Amino acid sequence: MKRYFPKNLLLYCSLSAGLLTSVTALHAGERTDRPVSGKAAPFFQDSTDTYTGVVLNESGFPVVGAQVSVGAGPAVTTDDKGVFSLKGGKGDPLLVRYHNILVSRLQLTDDKAPQIRLRNTNLAWKASQEVQLLHNLQAQPALTAASTQAVYNTDIQKMPVTSVRATLPGRLAGLYTNQVSGRPGSDDVNLTLRGAGSPLVLVDGIPRDITIFDLAEIESVTLLKDALATAMLGVRGSNGALAITTKKGIKAKQQISFTAQSALQQPMKAPKALNAYDYARLYNEAAQNDGLAAPYSPSDLDLYQNGSDPYGHPDVDWRKQVLRNSSRFDRYTLDARGGNNTARYYVALEHFNQTGIFKTVDTNTYNTNNNFKSYVIRSNVDININSKLSSGIYLLGRILHGDGPGNFATNTILNSLLQTPNNAYPVFNPDGSYGGTDIYTNNIWATATGMGYTQNYKRDMLTDVYLKRTLDELTKGLWVKATASYFSNISENIVRNKTVAVFQRVVDPSTGAVSYKQFGTNGTQSNTNYVEFQGRSNYLELALGYNRTFGHHGVDAIVLGNRDNYVTGSDLPLTYTGTSGRVAYNYKGKYVAEASWGLNGTNRYPEKAATRLGFFPAVGLAWNLHQEAFLQDQQWIDNLKLFGSFGKTGSGAPWDYDYIQRYPDAVSPRFGTGSGSTQTAIMQGDLVNPNRTFEQAQKLNLGVTGSLFASKLFFTAEYYRNKFYDLLMQRGRSNAMLGANYPLENLGSSRFQGMDLQLGYNNKLGGFEYFISGNAGIVNSELLFADEVFRQYDWMKRTGKRVGQDFGYVAQGLFQTDAEATSSPTIEGYTPQAGDIKYQDLNKDGVINQFDQAPIGNQKPVITYGVDLGFNFKGFDFSALLHGVQNRQIYLTGIGYLPFQQFGNGFGQAYAHNLNRWTPATAATADYPRLNLGYNANNHANSSYWYRSGNFLRLKNVVLGYTLPSRITSLVKLKGARVFVTGTNLLTFNSLKDIDPEVYNGAYPIQRLTNIGLNIKL
């Protein structure tokens, strides 16, 4: 035992600073597991026709269990060092298979100790990786019928981002992504799987709401799509799952990797504001269209145009005044990986610093830019206590720090940039005071730099522990495993605010005397410190598993019970409790039958078993056709599998015990005239539903996957049909006379169906390796039932239309003459004019009203797609990722698109696209209605006119790297060195002008990044 338990073994289970030292010492005590580097020593040095080589992955670690053969001859399996030995001759084909998939093909040469490196860019190598399932289960790709797709570490690390979600656009078929912000530390991406909802995120098999990661520590991200893959989640399985697997230790010599990279960030397109002159003349035009006098005289227009009166007639480009042209993103990562027969470890440290886009002033002793910093430590250790008992401890600690202007004003500033005209006020008055008016009482520059600062600190701690015992003494292949996890987080704010007065300069027209009107006050700084939120969660799991092969029969089964408990602040706990299981049977690896199930519920539903617990089963079948005798002679087919599944999943979105009738306080009535005669009254809240339960789904998935032509061509095609039912909604026949709203009931149903497609090709021409792969997701939906109010016409009904379908008026262009406007059906109470939007009178009653509202916007299947391509040649590597969406429309209205909308009172900014408004002179080319001040009941009504194409194709990522030759790196005792340059969001092709197709509503702009980095391996 002494050999397997060095004295410092316990240090593996701590977060102490001596962790790396203990790991190195542990490895030093085990001399038999040397690293696989260079060429393997031949087993039979006296045999000239014996080849003894080694198979390595891209990181240089041995590939265990690969099958190596010469041509169609018998295969040998690589050992725990990745070594193989077989007989052959020069020029013979050497084939390497992994999980029965051909991953490499080369010819034998005079080199009797070949080293075969399986690159992650090799599509065959990706397809042969074990499938990651729920609860840390893995399966060979040929031995499961579940629908999954994975992204691996090499692709994940190509993106200089903070959130793992931001690495996924364009990479996974069926996953719709939309980045809604580029804010430092919040460059998150909304995810929707097959049109239905956002997948549940799991980290190392446990549900976790964590997406800001050290990307270097992620081994893979697997998307679990169908019922068979997610049934074990029970009431949380309907929207699929995103399984993040972190790196673990490996039996090999210690390998240390350090990466430093620095990126230049630039904000992408935003609505272009009009200069003061164009704004003033368009404002005059809008006022005259409303029958008002023009507020700006010809003299005013001249002064705005020539800029000779910057205080009385300012022209401030507020975006240039407040925002930087660029910012920085620096990331440093250090990790170590290795181990021996006794223990294996992975340790990582990361720090990144991302600066914001707000300008600052040197006179401040504090930072008002919205910067973000992160410090992350990860330690994953697995230990073999003895030949039957193993354990592990996985630790994560994070400190996140964010800065910002006072009073959390980041969003306020961004909105003000869209709302405030260039001529509203000067930045400073001649006396140095902040400019402002009675309408604009907050100076944007003062808000950004002069009103204090805020700081946010988040601290997270995660601990996963497991203990696993094999029970081979009872029956071979039986095991039991206990898992416990604890996660805690806290967010604390420090706020240093102060108020700032603004002043409006007033010039007496008769005397020229100057005076100032003050709005607001110059206040002293206030100081507060408080906990924004605090939470914790704990997870317990006990599993019993069995994995064994009997001749031609293979069985892999697991049954487990778990409890997942969340507490946020002072709220009552939210607890998911239940059991689940999976069993897979295969015959000769050809035929696979698989079943999974979940039986669980949550404490937020009524206590009756019928509403609190649900049973969610799923079954699947797979057929590996390439192993059949009738295809053995078809050498061009390497792998071909048919698979399908059907099952039921659940979706629970529990509120806080809202099945309990509540009676909130109401207006207090007064009885009598004396003091204390006011009595507290109560009222009945919304009606409740004591039978409310979880939503459910029935899912069908059918697919085919394979590889052809010596694994050069890969494809996967899947068809799915998912029916969601027992959807929560209110009855449409609710009546105000009840005095209370109807409760949510399990009434609705909908259907999502479509296809996921993947196609890839890779080849090698001499030393030139290249690849190209593409994926697409096609999804359509239908609302099968909604308890609607009575709707007189079919076009008004929601049932039968797309899920989430918008309704409004159907626009027919613009009225070109007043005569056309007065002779056409119009909105009740509105008198149209030339330049107003013309709407279709669907029921032909001569009036435009609610009976003419029909489906508007996109009504076609949405298509998401991605293309990944690249090459490797003589140390150079290149890759490019394109991401796009088709049949997508966005609704452009409100601030940022409509002019003069601030406060709804006819003030506010106007934009470059408003220049192409309708006038008698532009009638033939105008794509915008005539201008008005404030809200227009006709033109601003919800209608198809304001829909624009949201289709886009984005060059999401480009990487160019060079790996230095080993003869150079060995001179400085390095195992490897690579320099690289990456670009993110470099180009976007879409039909919108000055508007980003993803962030178009005034949120923090998406960033374009140009990144340079260095990676060295020790």
Give a written overview of the molecule.
It is a single chain. 8% of the residues lie in helices and 44% in strands. Mean pLDDT is 89; it is low at 1-47. With 1018 residues, the protein is mainly beta. It starts with 18 loop residues before the first helix and ends with a strand. The strands form twelve sheets. The chain has a 22-stranded antiparallel beta barrel.
Question: How is this fold's topology laid out?
Answer:
Layout: H1 19-28, E1 50-57, E2 67-70, E3 76-77, E4 83-87, E5 93-98, E6 101-107, E7 115-118, H2 123-128, E8 131-132, E9 138-139, E10 148-152, H3 153-156, E11 175-179, E12 189-193, E13 200-203, E14 206-207, E15 218-224, H4 227-230, E16 241-246, E17 252-267, H5 276-289, H6 298-306, H7 318-322, E18 327-339, E19 343-354, E20 372-384, E21 389-405, H8 410-419, H9 444-449, E22 452-470, E23 478-497, E24 502-507, E25 514-519, E26 526-550, E27 553-568, E28 574-587, E29 591-602, H10 609-612, E30 613-624, E31 637-651, E32 665-666, E33 681-682, E34 695-708, E35 713-729, E36 745-765, E37 768-785, E38 806-808, E39 811-814, H11 818-822, E40 826-827, E41 837-839, E42 847-848, E43 854-856, E44 862-873, E45 876-886, E46 889-891, E47 947-949, E48 952-963, H12 966-969, E49 976-989, E50 1007-1017
Parallel strand pairs: 1-7, 13-16, 40-42
Antiparallel strand pairs: 1-4, 2-3, 2-5, 5-6, 8-9, 10-15, 11-12, 13-14, 15-16, 17-18, 17-50, 18-19, 19-20, 20-21, 21-22, 22-23, 23-26, 24-25, 26-27, 27-28, 28-29, 29-30, 30-31, 31-34, 32-33, 34-35, 35-36, 36-37, 37-44, 38-43, 39-41, 44-45, 45-48, 46-47, 48-49, 49-50
Helix pairs in contact: 5-6
